[in-house]
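Example record used in the benchmark description.
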Amino acid sequence: MKNVKGFSLAEVMVAMAIGMLMLMVVYTAVNMGQKSSAGIEGKVAAQQDARAALDLMAMELRMASYNPTLAPSIWVNPTSCSGASASSTYRGITAATASSISVEMDLNGNGVIGDASNEIITYAYDPANGYITRSTNCGGAQPFLGDKAANEDKRTVLVVNDDAGAPVFRYYDGAFSGAGVGTEIPAASLPGRIPDIRRIEITLVVDTHDQDPHTGSRRRLVYSTSVIPRNHAVTYTN
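Model output (structure tokens):
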């Protein structure tokens, strides 16, 4: 009779242990790959949103005081969109703080402010909710970068300038320093020195809304740009 040999119990158990170990290695590698992919996608989405927001803010602030007809005293109160602004000398930058700014521009060139879309724009940073709002022509403030708590699942970033100790807006006059970047206007001098503004620096410090899968913390990104509102420097009389 032919002798038929099989595997011993010990050999079967060793083979099963090796197989399970290999499956665990493969699972770990796949899981890490998925986490890395999710983390990269979250960071890319945050970068795209923050950069797009910064570019739009810069473009609109650059148009502050645009007045192609040189019409005098056309600037209005940015909170009511009617009547004269607090001071006609502020012209198209009607409010300026470290966390908010209101600008006006005569986009359709008819010597009237507020009768066309986006002629009065206000940006405001809300540190409590981690977002920046944008309002136009005295309409309601809408989430611009980040979102309200009710739509938290739609956020890609949290705006955290307050945590980072970085003002969203900084203002500079035309008295160039040795570095050639102008002299910063102290916040305590505003709004009185709004007419002296020649450059606006915008800084956005954002954390990714979703935590990094590997570290368990949010990734922080910082974006900054300088805007020269050229029309704000123009002077004219009746």
